[in-house]
Amino acid sequence: MAPGLEPRDDGASPPRSVLFMCGMNAIRSPMAEVLAKALLPPGTYIASAGVKTGERDPFVDVVLDELGLTAGRHEPHTLDQLEDDYFDMIVTLAPEAHHTALELTRSMAVDVEYWPTADPTATRGTRDQILAAYRDVRDHLETLIRHRLLGQSPRKMP
């Protein structure tokens, strides 16, 4: 069976549309978007946005490429720039994104989950040390997507 298409342990279906939000849509949320598109069933609508606009981070491309994935032509954007604004689930990856999502969804029937995720730009050191921090974020997000959105228990994760 293809990765990401295994039945959930709890019998529930993955959400049909997911928005990943972080501070600037430059690292965590676009990384989660690419990973989710690779793991979730075909037909799942997945997007990402930031509270404010940032600049594309080349380290994201490096760590995604290690898995054979790409962010393509992704350019950081805000919620206001999204084509669609209805989602079954909003996953926030930074405190400011979580507060914004809760405020925006106060009168909407949408699940908002906070997945605290480190900001790898805070890491100082050699290029290898910085890349290790980005890999940690990538691997953390992949684990959460598999567990929270696909319902896979840790024993099923590669």
TrEMBL record:
Keywords: Arsenical resistance. Pfam families: LMWPc. Gene3D superfamilies: 3.40.50.2300. Signal peptide: none annotated. InterPro entries: Ptyr_pPase (IPR023485), Ptyr_pPase_sf (IPR036196). The keyword Iron-sulfur does not apply. Residues 16-152 form the Phosphotyrosine protein phosphatase I domain. GO terms for biological process: response to arsenic-containing substance. PANTHER family: ARSENATE REDUCTASE. This is Low molecular weight phosphatase family protein. It comes from Ferranicluibacter rubi.
